[in-house]
Amino acid sequence: xxxxxxxxxNLTKYYGETLxxxxxxxxxxxxxxxxxxxxxxxxxxxxxxxxxxxxxxTNGKIRIFGKEVxxxxxxxxxxxxxxxxxxxxxxxxxxxxxxxxxxxxxxxxHHIEPRLFDRFELSDIDxxxxxxxxxxxxxxxxxxxxxxxxxxxxxxxxxxTIGLDPLMQEEFYDLLNEYQDKGCTIFFSSHNLxxxxxxxxxxxxxxxxxxxxxxxxxxLKNQLNRKLIILLKHPVENLNLPDAQxxxxxxxxxxxxxxxDVATLLKSxxxxxxxxxxxxxxxxxxxxxxxYKNQKDE
Length: 298
Known about the structure:
The chain folds into two domains: 6-217, P-loop containing nucleotide triphosphate hydrolases (Rossmann fold, 3-Layer(aba) Sandwich), CATH 3.40.50; 225-281, Alpha-Beta Plaits, CATH 3.30.70. Helices cover 32% and strands 29% of the residues. It contains eleven helices and 14 strands. Strand 4 (59-64) and strand 5 (67-68) form a beta hairpin.
């Protein structure tokens, strides 16, 4: 396996006596879309600012593209595209002037692919308006374009779909997949469960500044106990299913938690007078609830 694009080791950040993140470690591999999941205040933005050398860690190491962040910050950021949460820009500039400024800072041509504007429905009129007159949705589209236009090797995105309508969100997900196909690595921070499940293969779940889990979504699903709901045609005495715990019964409807081998369970189900059966696939919401709540919360 090639060296990871992002390597974080025992990273800790305190703001005075207030903890930002505590002893977190994970890696992001080349060409993957890596989800960084947690509610507001969990430590997502702090981690991103540490990655970009906007904050300095209290302890720990960060390597990006195999280089230490502190001495090689400028070189690293030249290869990155960044969309901060709650993106804002110079209000008295037009959108076009702002993008030209971004290009100048990166020593890149002013030309931006017209298709990038078209797919987010930004017209010449829109980008020639002053930024302070743009709607929140249009401002977010401008933020997306400034992060993507120079074809970065690493994209760091903090809540990137805030303010986008559902059609624009789908367009954004398509754009992510296109850049991934070109070899771009994407660090995707969000509290939106459905979009992380839609676009990410692996994810880290962060809670109160501490990592709860780093794993592929598929593996996490396989680790969860699954729910089973059955409806019988007529009553059955002493209903027991192997490797399944009865949660509740309502007449002929039974709800179980499955904790063992599904194949053995299915054989037992075949002997029952079933009217209906529901064996839902666990989703990211189930994963999040399972790993995010501690015993006190529950």
